[in-house]
Amino acid sequence: LKHMNQYIGDLAEGSLDGDLDIHDCTETENISNTFNIMLARLRLVEESRQEFVANVSHELKTPLTSMKVLADSLLMQGDAPVELYKEFMQDIANEIDRESSVISDLLTLVKMDRKSTELNVASTDINDFIEQILKRLRPIAEKANIELVFESNRSVTAEIDATKLSLAFSNLVENAIKYNRENGWVRVSLDADHKFFYVKVSDSGIGIPQESIDYIFERFYRVDKSHSREIGGTGLGLAITRSAVVAHRGAIKVQSTVDEGTTFIVRIPLRYIV
Ligand code: ADP
């Protein structure tokens, strides 16, 4: 940018006359346009950085504020019954869990972003890989009374970073369970062609309003902040998922109808392209 600035300054002063005709308006305009585009991009990056820092501070401060209020009111109680102490301590413990989840998701995201080009890729049986993920999540689905089904009728082998993609798919299935209804279902299916494999995660849940669809992959975005907080969301899960998918040169899209359900479709190349 400094060089570009200098170059434009020189052009204006005419000191580059020998190299370039200052009266060649098109050339000057081109450079100036490129400069403006770069400046606009830098502004966007800076704005998004500031927004991210503000969001992180807010998300980390909220549980601390709650803990402080809970601790202060306990201290003011004097001879409160032990049950009240227990209840408040449980609330404090919940806030500590929340703070830990935010920090742990943030660390995952930062690691994922920084090392997006350094995938630890290995040839993997994708059916086994998904079965393993679902095995871990089945107790959560059962506890929530959600039927969890896996459909696949072909064998698929692909070059993936199992740790990163496992996080990506776990987040999608966990969300499908979390944002579901009583006695609902979650269906995970696997398909492939000669270039890609496709994983579809569908649910019978609450759905995502059309106006929110474009934002759900953004860090800390949540459709319903209070509901999400109640069920333990940090707003970072889908950002982590997208980061892992993009690192694999894959793509993710979502279709949703409010009160009917949501489907996420992930497409990953069978062979990892460096
Ligand atoms: P969170 O930790 O809040 O679940 P995510 O980044 O995983 O954060 O998701 C962002 C938001 O997208 C969620 O808060 C929720 O509002 C919405 N969302 C994600 N998955 C689903 C789904 N399967 N059904 C309905 N809403 C969803």
From TrEMBL:
GO terms for cellular component: plasma membrane. Coiled coil: none annotated. Its EC number is 2.7.13.3. The keyword Membrane applies. Residues 1-47 form the HAMP domain. One of its GO terms (biological process) is cellular response to phosphate starvation. This is histidine kinase. It comes from Hominiventricola filiformis. The chain holds residues 202 to 475 of 475 of the full protein.
